[in-house]
Amino acid sequence: MGVSRGGFSSRMGFILAAAGSAVGLGNIWGFPTQTASNGGAAFVLVYLVLAFCLAYPAFMAELLIGRYGQANAVTSLQKMSRNLWQKRFAFLVGFGGIVCAALILSFYGIIAGWMMSYAIEPLAKMLSLDGLAQWVVTQGTLRNLLFTAVFMFLTIFIISRGVEQGIEKWSKRLMPMLIVLLVSLIVYVTTLEGADQGLKAYLQPDFSRVFDADLLISALGQAFFSLSLGTSVMIIYGSYIAKKENLVTLGAQVTVIDVSIAFLAGLLIIPAMYVAQAQGVAIFAEDGSLISGSGLVFTVLPALFQGMESVGLVVAFAFFVLMSIAALTSSISMLEGPVSYAVERHNVERKKATIAAGIIIFIISVAIVLNIEFLLDFIAILATQYGQPIIAMLCCVFVGWIWHRSEVLKEIQQGNDAVEHSLFWKIWPWYTKFVCPVAIAAVFIHSIL
């Protein structure tokens, strides 16, 4: 590993950074919404199984590509290639992941800006600044541009400082804060009236729904996308891991943390929904469907916080700070994709590359804000429902079909001498070669239909 590239200084540094990338709004916002819309506890059970049976193997494939290549996504994939067509294919996959990460960040920054604005509202109310409190939670072009710019500035600031002093240092600070806030909110919400009904819905599965086709595909998609797969992020993070580290256990630890925080998020938000319902807030339609859907965080939860009177301001502030931290731990990984490519392929100084990439992505965000009713959903669907599954599937194809099995084994053995005789090696190679591409293809087909 070249000194100029930098790298994670410790195992814990990588685990927290990779978990931070995986633990974003998709876990704390998306997972509870999916759970509420897809059978509650039955969805949770299926999600937990699929996260380890399908998402973890694909996650390992991307980490291996990165550590083997010790470079950005494009260069790492090209190092595995043996002829011209494979190198061209590698460029398409690697650069496609970088573009996908940039597009996700362009709309993600807008939503993260909303989280920050909602965190300011309770503070403004405490200071009797009612006009400001109303402005920060009202949809408007100026508000959206301002908070998107603030969020992008924070992301640029962290990435410009490099791997150890930027990504690792801030992940070590933000992830513990996120976990403490999440657990504290769970403890408080579960003491409120109606929470026991929410806990029952979340923890007692209806086993008759476990094999429902829509539930299975939705759970697979949530498990897969929550690990930041298909965006070149884990290839890059893998490239910063020392060769002495055991990738099999590192990957498993990150997956456990990611799944655990998603589970904790559900343990907060599902009971909170039923608490809000007990206070007279409409949550479900007559047919049992979720009324708010993806807008749950901005409609149901603020209504719940208002019902808590003065303590609700403190809880609202803590919750939206939590959401903002979750967004930031993911956004820094997304920006690292285009930055590492510019630094290593075009010899651009890191700080300049970070500022340039951040400004370009912010310009895309501005275009989305100015055409928000059309472009927000369009870019989100393009990147997450089309881009991510295709790129992730092609990464599995690379590891399963193009990279020589003996070279794959040699790479895994660095840091894990006995892996050849382990259950992991007996299952993972054919799993990545056959099962993962088919499963990802199923998610993709379901999403476009």
From TrEMBL:
Places the protein is found: Membrane
Topology in the lipid bilayer: Multi-pass membrane protein
Protein known as: Neurotransmitter:Na+ symporter, NSS family
Superkingdom of the source species: Bacteria
InterPro entries: Na/ntran_symport (IPR000175), SNS_sf (IPR037272), YocR/YhdH-like (IPR047218)
Main location group: membrane
GO CC terms of this entry: membrane
Source species taxonomy: Bacteria, Pseudomonadati, Pseudomonadota, Gammaproteobacteria, Alteromonadales
Keyword set includes Transmembrane: yes
Bilayer-spanning residue ranges: 40-59, 89-116, 145-163, 175-195, 215-242, 254-276, 312-335, 355-374, 386-403, 423-445
Keyword Transferase annotated: no
Keywords: Membrane, Transmembrane, Transmembrane helix, Transport
